[in-house]
Every structure is written in structure tokens, then in C-alpha cells.
Predict the 3D structure of the following.
Amino acid sequence: MIPAERLVEALEATWPPAEIAQIGGWRLRRGIGGGSRVSSVRPLGDPGEPVDGAIAKAERIMRGWGQRPLFQLTDADAALAAELSARSYAVKDPTVFMAAPAEALAARDLAPVRQVECAAPLAAMEAIWALDDVGPARLAVMERAKGPKTYFALRLKDRIAGVAFVAVDRDVALLHALVVDPALRRCGVGVASAIASARFGLSHGTETLALAVTEANAPALALYRGVGLVQCGGYRYLAAPD
């Protein structure tokens, strides 16, 4: 099973922030509206100063960016989580990683869905993303990703039924921003997105397809488990009080 720490690393590489500031081993990410993944502190090591001072400094920087102070933590960050909880930080969006061998997924049949790879999102794709609040700020995150990547239009019944973004970081392909037209849900589009993403990753030498999904999204969790993805750890956010 691929370590959660590796998936956190791949997640940032394939869904990158607009700017990074450092406090010792802490990475502060400026998202400019791109969502929590790119707008949080990721503690990779010692901040190089007392934790209470580092937290205060991180808060000043993030508020200066117009962001609510937010930390992305794994189970390895229990001590920091306790410090933040004592400051009335609240848990937000517990999230799990799901992963599977790319080769096994790629061998499955996409039919009746057909995937079309695009170098940039088409207007019709942007319209579907907008149904789930994936707007210009999140599209800008996709554009910033540096490694191999593609935008998928998933077609069913001669129309775009869903859209997704997939990007590669070395041995891992990450599936992001899957949105399916509400009128065409439960028609295999989500399954097809995982298969198409695994094939794309495999073509770029990856071994694993992975994605992150909130624990509250029971339908998505069931869908991905049904395709063969298994949970590989996860993370949660701790958000500062308003």
C-alpha cells in the first residue's frame, strides 16, 4: 500500500498553490480561491521556533493573503493538532486517500463512455465544472500543474456527461475535480473517469492511481471502492475560529 505521506506530496504537486511561504519546515500555501488544498499550512518538519510563535506567524501571513488560517494535518501531526484545538481550531473536511494499481484499472472496459483528452478545457467542459463550483480559481490551479496532465471530457450518448482533471507526479497519477452532469449520473461516468485516468497515468510510467475524497461523500466512496480503489490514509483540516 502506498504511504499516505507520498500521496500528500503528490497531491500538492498535481494541485499546486499560487505561492508558498516557509516557516522552517512548515509550508504555507496561498490558494487565491483555489480551495483548501492550496490554501493551508502543511507541516513537513520543525518550524524552527516555538510552536506557539510559529502558529501566530502563520496566522498573520495567511490573514495577510486574505485566507482563514487553515492547517492540513495527518495522523502524524497529533501534537500540532492538540495545540490548534486548544486555540479553538475546528476540524474541517476529514478526507481519505483512495488508491489502486494503475495497470489493474487500465485493463477495464470504459464502454459505453468514451473519453476525450484535451490540452485545455473547452467551454462546454467549464460549464459542467461550474455545476460543482469548480470555477476560474480552480481551473487556474489545474493550469499551474507542471507535470504530465490532461483534461478529460467523458462522453455518453453523444454529449459530454462528465469532466475530470488528471495529473502525474512521478509514480502517481492523481484524479481531480470529477464532475458529472446530474442528468447522466449512475451511468458509469465516474467509473470511466477512474479507468481513463489510470490509462493516462500508465502511459506516463505511473504505478498508482489515487484521489482524495471527503469522508462525508458516501456515494463517491462507494463508487471508488466498487472500482477497486482502497483507502490509504488521509488528512483533515483544522480551521481557525472566525
